[in-house]
């Protein structure tokens, strides 16, 4: 009785006890379903939240002048004042990193600004921001009406503006603001777009009180005391897991652009925007460990049930084992037959469990957000491998017991 014949005999034995095989496979499939399902759900939820956090800036970092957010003295000592990031430095950085990331340049032009229409004016609480073609996308700002800036307007600094929703309510409460004229900082601008309302949560209300103009236009607006604009640089990448690599490259480029001497500290600061993503990765790691433990415990119970059923099968087929031994089957061949039968039952249950687990995991993930349908091939392979291990462990003792039966006593059984 060779290996192939043993497989055939195992399948015949499974077919002759179909109900028992189905019930046994069901035990295994439930264990695999819980294992693959939980891990698939965690991966699906993480993928969905990755996309959500990416839209909130989790795949981005900001570069600004060092010490920009510090005020006054520290420990009785005056802090070193670093030069502003100039337009030339910002554009040079953008050109050097444009093939690996999306770089947005912006500048804070004015705060506490009064914006006027033909008939009304706002309170002096409007911020004026100058931004490039990537500014709206990098800040996750959407247009409720109108359009963004054209290439011509960006290049030549046209007097056009995108306004926040609060400015629309104050100046154009009953009319469409698109195409209307507004005046601020001594210039007249044409409204070409209006931002979606952010509301008061998470500082969104400040965005509703903002006017955005083309970056070149912001550079042309006269400032009090001829103050130099300080440019903010926001770098976004498609994949959050590449953030550390791109940040390292950005640091090297910015040091070169700013001409920071070798061995000296940087004259700029890089601030990550992915603290939420780091927390998510940590939590999802714990969830995967918990899911694996739960699935393992379920499979442990399934393996005990399988071993019990295989022991019953050995007792019921004692006479059959005696006949096979009398016809020349060795103890190794008998042991191999029962092991193959146990592994096949586990694999049949495993395939069903994997299918159900993938469906269950993606269903749970879909309740959180639209992350797409995920097939976790790693967990599929792990699940099927565990099925084989469970089959070997559960079938080893029954197979050993069957191989040690005395053929004469086995033939007398019943």
Ordered list of secondary-structure elements with their pairings:
Elements: H1 3-16, H2 18-55, E1 60-65, H3 87-97, E2 102-113, E3 126-131, H4 135-138, E4 143-146, H5 151-156, E5 160-163, H6 165-171, E6 181-184, E7 187-195, H7 204-208, E8 210-214, H8 215-220, E9 231-236, H9 243-258, E10 268-272, H10 275-316, H11 318-326, H12 331-368, H13 377-403, H14 407-412
Parallel strand pairs: 3-8, 5-7
Antiparallel strand pairs: 1-9, 1-10, 2-3, 2-9, 4-7, 5-8, 6-7
Protein name: ABC transporter permease
Membrane topology: Multi-pass membrane protein
Main location: membrane
Distance linking N and C termini:
25 Å
Residue stretches low in confidence (pLDDT < 50, at least 5 long) are: 200-204
Whole-number total of structural domains: 2
Order of helices and strands: HHEHEEHEHEHEEHEHEHEHHHHH
Task: Provide the helix percentage.
Answer: 55-70%
Q: For the report, how would you describe the main beta sheet?
A: 10 strands, mixed
Number of helices in the DSSP assignment? 14
Relative strand content = 5-15%
- Arithmetic mean pLDDT: 79
Structural class: alpha+beta
Number of strands: 10
Radius of gyration: 35 Å
- Globally, the shape reads elongated
């Amino acid at each position: 009785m060779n290996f192939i014949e043993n497989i055939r005999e195992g399948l015949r034995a499974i077919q002759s006890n179909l109900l028992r095989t189905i019930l046994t496979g069901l035990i295994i499939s439930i264990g695999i379903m819980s294992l693959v399902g939980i891990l698939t759900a965690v991966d699906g939820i993480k993928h969905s939240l990755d996309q959500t956090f990416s839209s909130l800036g989790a795949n981005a970092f900001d570069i600004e002048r060092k010490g920009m957010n510090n005020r006054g003295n520290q420990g009785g000592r005056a802090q070193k004042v670093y030069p502003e990031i100039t337009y030339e430095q910002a554009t040079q950085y953008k050109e050097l990193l444009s093939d690996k990331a999306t770089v947005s340049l912006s500048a804070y032009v004015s705060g506490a600004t009064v914006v006027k229409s033909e008939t009304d004016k706002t309170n002096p609480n409007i911020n004026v921001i100058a931004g490039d073609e990537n500014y709206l996308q990098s800040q996750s700002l959407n247009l409720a009406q109108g359009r963004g800036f054209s290439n011509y307007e960006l290049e030549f600094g046209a007097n056009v503006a995108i306004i926040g929703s609060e400015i629309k309510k104050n100046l154009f409460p009953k009319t469409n603001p698109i195409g209307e004229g507004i005046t601020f900082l001594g210039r007249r601008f044409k409204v070409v777009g209006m931002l979606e309302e952010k509301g008061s949560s998470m500082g969104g209300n400040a965005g509703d009180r903002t006017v955005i103009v083309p970056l070149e236009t912001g550079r042309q607006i006269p400032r009090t005391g001829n103050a130099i604009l300080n440019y903010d640089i926001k770098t976004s990448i498609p994949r959050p897991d590449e953030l550390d690599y791109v940040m390292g490259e950005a640091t090297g480029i910015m040091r070169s652009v700013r001409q920071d001497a070798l061995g000296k500290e940087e004259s700029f600061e890089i601030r990550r925007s992915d603290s939420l993503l780091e927390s998510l990765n940590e939590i999802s790691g714990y969830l995967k460990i918990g899911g694996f433990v739960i699935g393992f415990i379920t499979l442990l119970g399934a393996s005990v049930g399988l071993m019990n059923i295989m022991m019953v099968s050995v007792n019921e087929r004692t006479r059959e084992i005696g006949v096979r031994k009398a016809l020349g089957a060795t103890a190794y061949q008998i042991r191999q037959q029962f092991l193959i039968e146990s592994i096949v039952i586990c694999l049949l249950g495993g395939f069903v469990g994997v299918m159900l687990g993938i469906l269950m995991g993606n269903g749970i993930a879909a309740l959180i957000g639209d992350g797409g349908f995920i097939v976790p091939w790693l967990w599929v392979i792990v699940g099927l491998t565990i099925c084989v291990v469970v089959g070997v462990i559960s079938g080893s003792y029954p197979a050993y017991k069957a191989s040690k039966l005395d053929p004469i006593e086995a033939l007398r059984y019943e």
